[in-house]
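Human: If only I could read backbone structure tokens as easily as an amino acid sequence. Underneath my words sits a plain record pairing an amino acid chain with its backbone structure tokens. Take your time, and here it is.
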Amino acid sequence: MEMDTKVLDRNAEWFGVATEQLMENAGKAVAEEAKKLPYERWLVVCGSGNNGGDGYVAARYIKNCVVVAVSKPKTQLAMKNYRRAKAEGIPVYKYEKESFQKLLQESDAVIDAMLGVGIKGQLKQPYREIVEMLNSANKFILSVDVPTGLGSDVALKADLTVTFHFVKEGMEGKSGKIVVADIGIPKEAEEEVGIGDLLYYPKPDKKSHKGENGIVAVIGGGPYTGAPALAALAALRTGCDLAYVCTPSAISHIISSFSPNLIVKGMNGEIFSLGNIAEIEEMVAKADAILVGPGLGNDEETMKACRKFFEEYAGKKLIVVDADAIAALKDMDCGGKTIVTPHAGEFKKLTGIELPDNIEERKKLVMKEAAKINATILLKGYVDIISDGHSIKINRMHNEAMTAGGTGDVLAGICTALLAKKAKPFHAACMAAFINGMAGNMVYEEKSYGLVASDLLEKIPEVIRDFI
């Protein structure tokens, strides 16, 4: 709930609406609802975060009010609006229990702008005692976004809640009357992938050690050698600790030569076959996420091996399926733990459906088919479409030079890394589409139509540094 709100705010800024403007619109919406009510003297209680910032804005528009600051504003925007409220003559008092009780007694109604969706665990003091006082005060209470303490053992009993953009989880029946206010979040912020989605990137703990930030295994190669190497290197550049490449022995030395950072496990034979599955059990067991497909080819024996592998591991392990291996997933239940990364032709092999050009029609079909196989589908195209059968987003972050061979292998490697780092499949796919596309755009600025897939590998860390 908290993350969804932060993602929307950050994406709104990405798509051209500043967070400061959203706060202004939010506070104004609260004030407008307050003015409809038959109360003259308002007590506005503000916390230290952006929920408090909304309260300071509301106070400016209400005017006939006093503000109690529970603690000093800790965000830049909350501080800015705290100062604006004071500059416009709104009385602002520091919280002290005795004076608060007096101000509460003198007021007709209260605006609760203490804590929004970001609280974790139970309420701490002085918020807990303030909520207890307000609940026993017999005053009308209007909460901002969500009632303070929602979901904890001591929550504010609001008569009215003005929430923003959408009703938050757990609000129904616990927030009084709910008014959903449009505060100007552009539809793109919700429908398209933006920098806000990168908030789901699992950052490493400073005390973590090798292996705790993701181990991937790539099952690929045979007819082709570059694809599995690109995917594995992309996973490492996305922040994974270790990347295993399980590949036929006939080409394992070639893949090893691409980078000393790859741990290459040779499998008997020249192509991936049924007998290889037992050979790689150890690597599969160690891996947090597995990528199947890059460079495997579509030999009948390989397709049987892919099908057998999915029957054994789909729904048990986190898996990304790319390239020719996609066809082997047809009619399977992936257990909600799989990302599939087809282009239109591979989507047809998976589903039997030839996709129309119309984006809205494509979205409906991708969502339907994702639900059918219980997986997240990242459909690659001039507009990427990502759905897990419940949620759906599109990604426009790429360029026409990214038709170069291998960019899809890089994308699949990024997806696998994010899964291995414990991002949820839908979030991993959204982030991967953005990171891959942004890396491609950075390369495009330098090399134009001369972009090649290996160029993206060096830009992935730049995207992570600049946007995460």
Observations:
- Residues 303 and 365 are 25 Å apart (CA to CA).
- The mean pLDDT is 95.
- The first strand starts at residue 42 and ends at 46.
- Residues 2-191 form a domain with the Rossmann fold fold (CATH 3.40.50.10260).
